[in-house]
Amino acid sequence: MVTDAVNAYPGERLGLPASGTGSVGRLGRRIGALLIDYVAATIIATAFLGFDQFALPAEAGLSQFGPMAVFALLQILFIPTAGGSPGHRILGMRVVRLDGGWVGLWRPIVRTALLIVVIPAVIFDADQRGLHDKVVGTVLIRT
């Protein structure tokens, strides 16, 4: 039993296991999921919104925000319905509430808005929960 303020592993304070199913999704998996989601969003934006990834910013107009809009939509739709974004699910993770309830509809919206801002996602605590997860009371765990 750890008696000092330092955790033996990420998720210990939350009552999560050190590894395996139910443990905190580690940084490598989270970055991989983010890349999968953003590549998928870029492909979808290119196919359906006319996004031109090679256009100069002055020529791109609003289409330059296409991939980010699709990325946000994927997050907001898939987290409450599938338990995580396509990238999360492919890499064996899901977003859950700390109290075990359903994530609901507002949490994915707020979480995604903070994720898009980027800074809250790169500031995280000893349990490897970014500010975007801390604000809405969720954690990304392995399945």
From TrEMBL:
Keyword tags: Cell membrane, Membrane, Transmembrane, Transmembrane helix
Entry's transmembrane regions: 31-51, 63-83
Membrane topology: Multi-pass membrane protein
Main location, first listed in the record: membrane
Keyword Cell membrane carried by entry: yes
Residue stretches making up the RDD domain: 26-136
Subcellular location: Cell membrane
UniProt keyword annotation of Membrane present: yes
Protein name (database record): RDD family protein
InterPro entries noted in UniProt: Pra-immunoreactive, RDD, UCP021697
